[in-house]
Each structure stands twice: as C-alpha cells, then as structure tokens.
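Appendix B: complex inputs.
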Amino acid sequence: MENRFDLNLYLVTDAPEKCRLGLLETVEAAIDGGVTIVQYRSENPNAGTCYSEALQLADFLRSRKIPFIVNNRADLALAVNADGVHVGQKDLPVEAVRRLIGKEKILGLSVSDLNEMEAAKTAPVDYLGIGPVFPTATKADAAPALGAENFAKLSAQSPFPVVAIGGINVERARVLRQGVPGVGIAVVSAICGAENPRLAAANFLCE
Amino acid sequence: MENRFDLNLYLVTDAPEKCRLGLLETVEAAIDGGVTIVQYRSENPNAGTCYSEALQLADFLRSRKIPFIVNNRADLALAVNADGVHVGQKDLPVEAVRRLIGKEKILGLSVSDLNEMEAAKTAPVDYLGIGPVFPTATKADAAPALGAENFAKLSAQSPFPVVAIGGINVERARVLRQGVPGVGIAVVSAICGAENPRLAAANFLCE
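Resulting structure:
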C-alpha cells in the first residue's frame, strides 16, 4: 500500500480477554464506527497465536482498506504483510526496523518525554505516538501520565503527525483536539472494553 | 555465510544473571572450549537490550567464524545479520520465518514428541532441536522430559541433523552420543553457569 494513513481515530487492540466481543468482531465493529487505523498489540508470549490473530486482522482490514499496524515485532508485521510497525522506546531501534520493513511501510514510534522527542526528531518514522496522556491501566510498564498541557507542548515539537494515547475517553479526546487541532486519538479499552464498540468509536467522532 | 554448520556442541545462552561471567565473556570462553555454534536466547521483554546483546555476539562470532543463531525473533536475527533463527512450536510458523529470512540462512525447529516430528518432516528447516531430553530448570514452559530412549527413537525419524537439548551434562552427553552417533549436544546452564565455561565446554568434547 502507499504510505498514506489517517491517524484520526487509532484503535490499539487490547488482550482478547479484555474485549467484550471477540478480537475480530471488536475490530469490525470499531471500523464500522469510524476507526481510521488499527494497531495489533498483544502481550501474549505465544507468537504462533499472535500470528493467527494478526493474519485474520490483516486480511479483514485489507478488505476494508484500513491501514494495519503491528506493535513491536517487525517479523510478525512482515509475515502477515501488515502496512506498518509501531515500536516503543524499549523495542528494536527504529533505524533497524526501518531497514527491515523498507521505506514504503508505515513506522510509528512512542515518545513520552522531551528527551525522547528530541531523539525522535531525526528518526526514520512516519508518525509519533505521544503518551500516556492520562493514567492508564492497559499497559503495565507505561511511563507517568503527561496531562493535556504537557502533551500539547510535546506535540508542538513534533515534525511528524501525532497520535495521543493513554487513558483517553470521549471527553478527554475533545479537550485534546481543542488544544492540538488535527491530533490523532488512540484508544484501547474505551473501544475494546465497550459493550458496543461501534457506538464507542462513533462517539469519539461526534463534535 | 554459506548454509553450513556443525551442531556438535551447541551453546544456547542463558539469562545474563545466570551466567558466572558476562554474556560475551561466557560465549568467548565457550568458543575457546570448543563450542561449534551459538544460539542467543533471551526472555528479556526489552527488545532493545536484546538487540544490543545480540549485536555484540554477532560481531564477535563472525570474527570467529562460528554460526550465530537467534531464538524466536526473526526480526532481531535479521537486524543483527545473524546466520539463522531457531523457532519453537509456539513461535511464528517455520514457513513464515523461512520466507522472511530467505533460503540461505539456517533455520532450526524444536520438536518434543512424535506428532511434532511428523509435522516437522516436511518443514523448511535445516536441523531439529529435540528435547527436553532430561528435566531442565532453564526453560519455564518446557515439555516433559523424553529420556534418552525416547530421544533416540525420535531422532531416528528425523530427516534433518539433530541436536539434543534439556538438562544435558557431560555424562548424559556421552550416553546420548552412544545411542545416537553424530548427534549434536545443546547446552545451556552446564556451560553458562560454570565457573570456567571454557573448561566446561571442553569437557563435553572429551572421549
């Protein structure tokens, strides 16, 4: 695919046991609700299971023309022919990942403070995920929450499109978008854990 | 490198905190003692740390012309230009890994019972690791130990070179080699945990 993507409403998958529906059903519903890009993130150490899950999502999202990103593992991303990879500060170096996936695929990097932002400015990436903006229970090893104001300051320094992540609900998304026009909103539990993921996603898009 | 390797004494790295020496020092000493091939295996979830460790080992082993295999993550193997990848039954499918790494790199697969052996017979691999032969404390999720007799039966069915793994010490290695001439011996703690890894490795090669 071409290296074009819309970060507006960025779904990051939660562990299947934290989803009310199955993983694929959750993603389907979220897409129907308006999600613009999907990242598969799993802490399951069984890479075979991750492969099956990611392959299913990749096929579905390709049919819906929604970009599909795989967290952390570039090998998994390449094996299922995903559209990109997202790495954190403790994952393989972005430069190494860029060499592995080539220049056409989307590459995202997580940033949680000014030092990381400084280093990220020259990184071979397509977007930055900045957070956690608010406290989150989804990611065990998350850094301290930035708050909306620090998020806005960090975002202002980014030479790349930015997506906000961490504890974001509909109200908070509205506040963030007022502070940083055009910012993407990444959501995990507020969609995956919802009884109706389609409606949960759609609510993020209401003015 | 050419797809040639000697499984005779196969070192699998243990967690750095379980090595008496540093990781690189352990591997250096083990090579001096006669280890013929090295696999980097780490359960550290911090892939950035794994990258640093693997890169250091890759550079050293290249200088010593010893094949270097990376466990589980094909992306890490490619990023450090290792000579191959070793996957378990719960890792990415071997076919997917073979596509990622190309046909020149070495690909190994773990097998622990007859069903897995049956499936492995047509797998695009270069060798099989069979085990655990004896009870092991190194790998938390290891299957039940096969014992020397079942190991010999499984080995006899392999169309590929075989390396025995799991709880192997010098005495047991001797027994295994008597039962299965030419078998490779994989060792983790008996070398990594030794006060003198060079001597520990050399002892595996004494008749």
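The radius of gyration of chain A is 16 Å.
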